[in-house]
């Protein structure tokens, strides 16, 4: 064993390592292996756009920053822009790129781009097990030599290669890689590079050459970064250099020419290192994967999945678990104890009411959040995690693309819509995966309008089933029709182009239950931290309204609307108002009315339709307001509220006219 | 079913081989008086008058074949030919990716000029770059191709903008 004296000092006691790579390469698993923290292992940008950090276990002063998956620089989505911002703004010690060992060409293209940034870089070729299974063989050392950077084969899910990775990171240096671009481009790069060296404070976060390449490729994040640091005269000069070059090219944009040069270099390299390209396998999971996008089989599989979801979340979660928690645990044990405790210690009725009264923080806020929503949302997240981990969701997007095309969206919208069946609040966050702002707003609108969350769905289904099958049919057709009509109209009215579907289909795999569990726990944690406080605020709000008598007044004021227009009994007014706080409460209040025989079949259907179309709960409204801006949220509120009532009233008249249910 | 295909029908009764176009001028007594004469997918043998079938005229068959991948008598469920991808597109002319049948291998050669820069960058980012070999897996409901070991799903509209050649 030779004594190793590193020429570069081991990682200094500060700085970060950026974890970069394509989506679906196992970045998050590597993150977890290196930091020991349970990160969300997810294929899907909506949940990792919050840049995650963790201290590297071996070097606690170094933090590892997990970035959103990037397809290439320049960035094409909000997520990718975040990745680049990390690269430009973090005090980076090194870049750790994680790549899919089976897809060398694509991986190396990104490696090249990252290497040109001039920071120490290590390439982890992950999922080696899958590559080997498919017969992909390459020479890692040769690759390493040719690229001028360390290449470490890993199989992160089995913790293979991690030690070697840490070793490589410890001694990582800036790669000596520099490829030659066509003459005139090379000259422009040199000029721009020199300009940066003179005008920007040293050291620049990435090498001046790297910055020059980004600038010349019209990278917007780089542009933004430079504009913040250079005066306008310098920017003008730089822009002129770039534009001049673009004109010279005669047709082909500069960015394309640069990329083409890189491609050629990679294509030249690969035959030398790739020994065998491998082939697809024909096992069961692959077969299921193929069938899931079949126009006919795919639909059947989808129906199967939905049924399973219904059984697990609806029957087990919403029925059984909620029953135990709400009635038994909270209803019989915890709540009476808390109530008596509060009454023992506090003698001011106002405060006791605030805590454990009808709209009490505990009795309404916490009980609702924990006893009712939590089990439903937990079962849903679990089921969703299984679907996610298996790789089914992108296939679902491909299958449903034509449906969403008509709504001015693409198949990716199916993800938030399905998630909305669990919890609209969480789904509103997931709209981030839509590529454009226009689409994000459209999906959010549809979510807020027509997707009933699982809390509500359970009660709605129960009530409708209690009437007749045709009631169920009417409800679902009206809701679907509204969704379609509004979606179509909004799609036409909103300015901007629809983003066409372009999505990677990762190989279907058996879900790893530790992954799914970790994801579910992380989501539940999020839920407890973000949503429960919102329900507490809601309870406090209702309490205030009730105490000040405003609640009563609001109920009275809305009665004419409820009785006259919707044809419902006056008591329903309270249920609707409550529906704003607790989305299921609107339904539950009506459920109680039904069980007391106070509602006719028509009234049940009308109220269920109205309650479904009604605005989502306060928690989701707040999240939407935060994600899309309060003006957009307010706009949606103003559109949805009257619209829900409008449809309800019209339905009432239509059903009465047809004499249905009588 | 492209227009260049010349479908012929072999009469089950007398063995006569005839093109189905004859239905337009069918003077068989049974057909001239029938109200759906023009749009009917049933034809009659000009020699013996026995009924034959022109599947290209039947909406149901066309639907089924599109969904089942039925083509040239290959059986209904070979909708997606993953095979060994031996069907190399030897036709050196340029075609749209959307035109390639499932199971064919080809090389990306370029993009339609009207493709936006944004979308072109997206396609290239996923590996659809000039010179890249691809295997077409599916064309309905979306186009799915295999690039190295990556399966990519893209809308038919987009697939029309990718030019491929053998």
Short synopsis of the structure:
The complex is a heterodimer of chains A (662) and B (166). Chain A is α/β, with parallel strands linked by helices and 662 residues long.
Order of helical and strand elements of chain B = EEHEEHEEEHEEEHE
The amount of beta strand of chain B, in percent, is 25-35%
Calculate the mean pLDDT score of chain A and round it: 82
Provide mean pLDDT of chain B, rounded. 70
Shape of chain A: elongated
By DSSP, the count of extended strands of chain B is 11
- Which chains make the largest contact? A-B, 47 and 38 residues
Percent of sequence in beta strands of chain A: 5-15%
Overall 3D form of chain B: elongated
Give Rg of chain B in angstroms: 20 Å
Structural class of chain B: alpha+beta
The description of the largest β-sheet of chain A is:
6 strands, mixed
Task: Considering the chains and any ligands shown, give keywords for the structure.
heterodimer; A: 662 residues; alpha/beta; 6-stranded mixed β-sheet; two-stranded antiparallel sheet; 9 strands; B: 166 residues
Structure, described:
The complex is a heterodimer of chains A (about 650) and B (about 170). Chain A contains 29 helices and nine strands. With about 650 residues, chain A is α/β, with parallel strands linked by helices. In chain A, the strands form two sheets. Chain A has a six-stranded mixed β-sheet, with helices on both faces. Chain A has a two-stranded antiparallel ribbon with strand order 6-8. Chain B is an alpha+beta fold and about 170 residues long. Helices cover about 15% and strands about 25% of the residues of chain B. Chain B is elongated. Chains A and B meet through α3, α11, α16, α17 and β9 of A and α3, β9 and β10 of B.
């Amino acid at each position: 064993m030779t004594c190793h004296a590193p020429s570069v000092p081991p990682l200094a006691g500060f700085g970060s390592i950026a974890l970069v790579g394509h989506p679906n390469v196992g970045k998050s698993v590597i993150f977890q292996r290196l930091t020991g923290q349970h990160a969300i292992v997810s294929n899907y940008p909506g949940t990792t756009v919050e840049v995650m950090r963790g201290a590297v276990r071996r070097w606690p002063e170094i933090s590892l920053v997990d970035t959103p998956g990037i397809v290439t620089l320049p960035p094409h989505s909000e997520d990718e822009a975040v990745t680049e911002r990390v690269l430009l703004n973090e005090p980076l010690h090194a870049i750790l790129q994680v790549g899919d060992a089976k897809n060398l060409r694509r991986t190396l293209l990104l490696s090249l781009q990252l290497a040109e940034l001039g920071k120490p870089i290590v390439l982890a070729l992950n999922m080696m097990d899958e590559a080997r299974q498919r017969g992909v063989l390459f020479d890692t050392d040769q690759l390493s030599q040719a690229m001028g950077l360390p290449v470490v084969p890993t199989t992160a899910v089995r913790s293979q290669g991690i030690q070697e990775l840490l070793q490589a990171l410890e001694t990582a240096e800036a790669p000596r890689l520099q490829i030659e671009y066509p003459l005139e481009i090379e000259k422009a790069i040199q000029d721009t590079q020199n300009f940066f060296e003179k005008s920007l404070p040293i050291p620049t976060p990435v090498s001046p050459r790297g910055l020059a390449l980004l600038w010349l490729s019209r990278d917007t994040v780089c542009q933004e970064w430079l504009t913040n640091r250079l005066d306008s005269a310098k920017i003008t000069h730089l822009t002129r250099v770039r534009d001049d070059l673009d004109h010279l090219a005669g047709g082909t944009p500069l960015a394309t020419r640069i990329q083409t040069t890189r491609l050629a270099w990679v294509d030249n390299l690969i035959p030398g290192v790739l020994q065998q390209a491998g082939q697809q396998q024909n096992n069961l999971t692959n077969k299921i994967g193929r069938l899931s996008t079949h126009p006919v089989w795919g639909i059947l599989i989808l129906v199967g999945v939905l049924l399973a979801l219904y059984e697990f979340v609806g029957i087990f979660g919403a029925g059984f678990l909620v029953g135990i928690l709400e009635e038994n645990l909270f209803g019989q044990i915890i709540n009476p104890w808390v109530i008596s405790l509060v009454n023992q210690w506090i003698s001011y009725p106002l405060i006791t009411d605030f805590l454990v009264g009808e709209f009490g923080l505990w009795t309404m806020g916490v009980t609702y959040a924990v006893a009712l929503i939590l089990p439903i949302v937990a079962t849903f997240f679990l089921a969703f995690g299984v679907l996610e981990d298996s790789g089914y969701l992108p296939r679902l997007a491909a299958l449903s693309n034509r449906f969403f095309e008509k709504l001015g969206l693409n198949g990716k919208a199916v993800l938030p819509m399905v998630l909305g069946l669990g919890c609209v609040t969480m789904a509103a966050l997931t709209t981030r995966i839509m590529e454009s702002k226009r689409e994000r707003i459209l999906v959010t609108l549809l979510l807020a309008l027509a997707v009933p969350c699982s809390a509500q769905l359970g009660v709605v289904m129960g009530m409708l089933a209690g009437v007749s099958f045709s009631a169920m049919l009417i409800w679902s057709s009206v809701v679907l029709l509204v969704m379609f009509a509004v979606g179509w109209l909004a799609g036409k009215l909103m300015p901007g182009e629809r983003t066409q579907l372009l999505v990677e289909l990762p190989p279907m795999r058996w879900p790893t239950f530790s992954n799914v569990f970790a994801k579910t726990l992380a989501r539940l944690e999020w839920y407890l931290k973000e949503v429960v406080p919102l329900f507490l605020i809601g309870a406090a709000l209702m309490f205030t309204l009730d105490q000040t008598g405003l609640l009563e007044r609001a109920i009275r004021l809305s009665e004419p609307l409820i009785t006259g227009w919707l044809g419902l009994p006056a008591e329903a007014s309270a249920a609707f108002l409550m529906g704003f706080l607790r989305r299921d409460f609107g339904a539950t209040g009506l459920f109680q009315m039904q069980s007391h025989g106070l509602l006719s079949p028509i009234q049940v259907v009308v109220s269920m339709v109205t309650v479904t179309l009604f605005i989502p709960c306060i928690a989701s409204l707040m999240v939407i307001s935060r994600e899309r801006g309060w003006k957009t949220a307010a706009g949606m509120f103003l559109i949805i509220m009257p619209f829900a009532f409008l449809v309800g009233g019209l339905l009432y008249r239509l059903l009465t006219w047809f004499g249905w249910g009588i | 079913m492209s227009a260049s295909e010349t479908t012929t029908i072999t009469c089950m009764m007398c063995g006569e081989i005839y093109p189905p176009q004859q239905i337009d001028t069918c003077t068989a007594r049974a057909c001239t008086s029938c109200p759906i004469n023009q749009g009917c997918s049933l034809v009659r043998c000009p020699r013996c008058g026995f009924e034959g079938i022109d599947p290209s005229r039947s909406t149901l068959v066309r639907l089924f074949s599109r969904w089942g991948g039925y083509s040239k008598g290959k059986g209904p469920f070979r909708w997606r030919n993953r095979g060994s991808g031996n069907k190399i597109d030897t036709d050196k002319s340029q075609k749209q990716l959307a035109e390639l049948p499932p199971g064919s291998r080809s090389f990306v050669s370029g993009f339609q000029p009207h493709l936006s820069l944004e979308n072109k960058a997206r396609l290239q980012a996923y590996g659809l770059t000039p010179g890249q070999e691809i295997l077409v897996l599916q064309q309905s409901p979306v186009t799915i191709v295999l690039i190295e070991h990556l399966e990519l799903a893209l809308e038919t509209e987009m697939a029309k903008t990718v030019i491929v050649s053998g």
